[in-house]
Each structure stands twice: as C-alpha cells, then as structure tokens.
Amino acid sequence: MALRKEEITRKLLHLFALLMPAGIFYLPRYGVPDAVPIGILAFLVAGSIAVEWLRFRVPAVQKAFYFLFKHLLRKEESSTVTGSTYVMGAALICSLLFINHKHISLMVLTLFILGDAVAAIVGLSVGRIKIGKKSLEGSAACFAMCMALFYALFPRLPWALDAWGGKVPLAIALVSSLSITVFELIPLRITPKLTINDNLAVPVITGGIMLWMERAICGF
Is the pTM of this model over 0.70? Predict the structure, then answer.
C-alpha cells in the first residue's frame, strides 16, 4: 500500500495526542490536583464514545461526522470505533493505573503515539517485507524511534527521569521499545472473534512491563 497524503495528515494530527501524556505528568507538577487531568480525559473519552455511538445510529450525525473526518478515516473505521477513541481510552487507563508513577504514563503514551506514527509512515512508504498487514521496515522504524526517545528526548524533559536517578536503564529501554514494537505488530486476539485494539492495549501492557522492570531494577 502506498503512503497517502491522508495517512500523513492523520499521523500529524495524532501528534496532538501528546498533550495527554504531557498533561498527566506535568499538570500535577504545577500544583493541579490529579483529579483534573483524569477528569478531562474521562470527559474526552465519554464524549468520543457518545459521538461514536451516535454516528452509527443517527443519520444526521453520521453525515456530519463523515463530512468533517472522512478524509482522515481508514477504511475499517467507517464501521468500527476510531483509533483516536482507543488512544484516549488508553491514556485514561494509564492515568489511573500509574497514578503514583506518572512518568510511566508520560513515557509509554509518548512511545506508542510516536512509534506507531513512524511505523505507519515508514511501512506504507518503503515497507516491502510484510508481516500480516504491517511490515518489518515499519516495525524496525518503531523500535528505533522508541530507543531514540529514551535517550534523546526523555533525558531532556524536566523531571521525567527523576524516578530513575536521572538515567535511563538500558534494560528498561530495550524491553519497553520491544514491547511497543511487538504488540503494535501482532494482533492481540483473545478469541477468534475478539481482538483488543492495539491503540488501547499496547500502552497499558507496556506500562505494566515498565513498572515491573522499574521495581526489579531500581528496587521500588
């Protein structure tokens, strides 16, 4: 599949999703109660679910939705929930699960949002070796992006590495990057008819892995 202008636009717009991990991590640092970013995310998720429900059942809403967003939808999203709703859901779950480890939410959501974007763009533009519906080239780009974020971005974000003594443990970087890459690549099937959307599952799974490794390596 060739890389389309619509896919590039879609991924660029997804960069706005980085406001979610930034809000989860930094708002409390400036004295904002945890309930505020969590409440904002809950409101966004509820609103998005309501719009999704209405667009499948109310013709006028469906028409307006497609008029505004059809050029950004993938083919399968015409009849299923959009990826953006799942990403917001993942951010809400992470904000709750890792409420005492906000750096985990900051990192896993950033890794997934940017890793997924790079994987799609590289896979669609130069991907040749197919793995299911995706490509080896896209997965390699995802892994490389995640490792770059660990060592080029996170050390420069204020307070991001305080829990790790200011340094990125190589084992955490490697395993977390691999987790994002593998789970983004392989469908997460529970039953033959039930597959968990990767936009929802991958950040949560990787966050759990990162927290477990943090406790094992850093001792807390």
Answer: yes
